[in-house]
Amino acid sequence: MQYRHVFHAGNFADVHKHIALLALIAALQRKAKGFVYIDTHAGAGLYDLRGPDARQSGESSHGIDRLTASSAPAPDPAISRYLDTLTSLRNAVGNSHHYPGSPLLAAATLRNADRAICIESQAQQARAL
Question: Which tens digits make up the pLDDT trace of 40-64?
């Protein structure tokens, strides 16, 4: 079975995973010593939520779209950190409907002392990564 990240990008579980990922990276960065981030199922790293593959399932409407549509302040610093990182990355690519996956979120927050190894088995996704 070939898992396609784009079909599930920005869904409810993805948002929770990314909030936890950024919280974990922040916790690891409390120490000056660097660490290695390893992603064994990295995907492409950036997804167009308006593209046909992402729209096929429409899962992002119950995840990232719902979270960013909320006008309420984030109830937790970890959610605020995630939303700030998401906004920064979307501004950097110049597109508010692109969604960063775990490799891009991690890369945006790693320090010079930290390292990342991202692995993807599907050739097309690996090239995009």
Answer: 988 888 988 888 877 777 788 888 9
Q: How far apart are CA 25 and CA 59, in angstroms?
A: 26
Q: What DSSP letter does each residue of 21-69 carry, written as one string?
A: HHHHHHHHTTSSS--EEEETT---SEEETTSHHHHHH-GGGGTHHHHHH
Q: What is the pTM of this model?
A: 0.88
Length of the chain: 129
Half-sphere exposure of 5 (CA within 13 A, CB side): 24
60/74 Cα distance (integer angstroms) = 18
**Each residue of 83-102: pLDDT tens digit?**
999 999 999 988 888 999 99
